[in-house]
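Action item from last meeting closed. Structure (259 res):
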């Protein structure tokens, strides 16, 4: 009789979870403008590699999807609280407190140092081969950048709201170095140079030395009603990798996808 009661409770719980999942879309919290992975177009719509990957993944799973961009720190807060279900990011100890990572690597990016040519540490930054060589400098980082927080002293970090703000601060000499994704940062600099001729963005150079290779994974909130679907999401993303869908999405935005 006790077994039957336990089975009934488990069944009711499973039905309740399924109903909760069906009651609302899966919400992905995006971290602002990180073109070509995610950006907001002139029409207000979110576009990019990750947007398309998730759209196809959840279409195959027959789950309605909402992709909502926020300032990066706020996006993570929404995932931690369960207001949003998941995000794409680098796995850190702090994020593991409140979210569970998937196995599939959605993006991989070379992180290099960017510095202003008039900075007295410029040559030193360009020659650096490790993060340890830059520990004594003023590092500019976006609010919510857990990876920078794990790799540099708190006293060495100065934060800004957006990635564009970081590069403006670097151009104006309000910091020594920005350590960021090579592709996304170079693209952002092209836009900033075109749209802000009055600011010295031309003085910013990225180093040739790779300081870190960072993998970006899907992470789902431990409070999400979809937590029990993580295995399905992982399997679908792996199918998309195997059948070439992810590579084709990368190609649409002018990049090579992960094999």
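Sequence:
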């Amino acid at each position: 009789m006790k077994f039957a009661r336990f089975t009934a409770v488990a069944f009711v719980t499973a039905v309740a979870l399924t109903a909760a999942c069906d009651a609302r879309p899966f919400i992905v919290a995006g971290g602002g403008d990180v073109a070509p992975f995610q950006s907001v177009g002139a029409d207000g719509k979110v576009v990019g590699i990750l947007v398309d990957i998730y759209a196809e993944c959840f279409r195959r799973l027959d789950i309605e999807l909402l992709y909502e961009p926020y300032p990066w720190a706020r996006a993570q807060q929404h995932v931690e609280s369960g207001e949003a279900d998941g995000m794409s990011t680098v796995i850190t100890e702090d994020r593991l407190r409140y979210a569970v990572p998937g196995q599939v690597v959605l993006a991989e990016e070379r992180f290099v140092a960017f510095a202003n040519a008039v900075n007295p540490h410029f040559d030193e930054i360009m020659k650096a081969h490790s993060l340890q060589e830059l520990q004594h400098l003023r590092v500019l980082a976006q609010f919510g950048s857990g990876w920078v927080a794990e790799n540099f002293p708190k006293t060495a970090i100065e934060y800004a709201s957006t990635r564009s703000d970081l590069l403006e601060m670097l151009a104006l000499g309000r910091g020594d170095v920005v350590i960021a994704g090579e592709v996304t940062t170079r693209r952002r600099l092209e836009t900033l140079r075109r749209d802000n001729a009055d600011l010295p963005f031309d003085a910013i150079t990225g180093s040739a030395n790779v300081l870190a290779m960072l993998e970006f994974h899907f992470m789902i909130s431990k409070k999400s009603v979809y937590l029990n679907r993580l295995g399905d999401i992982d399997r679908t993303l792996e199918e998309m990798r195997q059948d070439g869908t992810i590579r084709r999405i990368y190609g649409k935005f002018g990049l090579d996808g992960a094999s």
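Note appended to the action item: Residues 1-20 have pLDDT under 50 and may be disordered.
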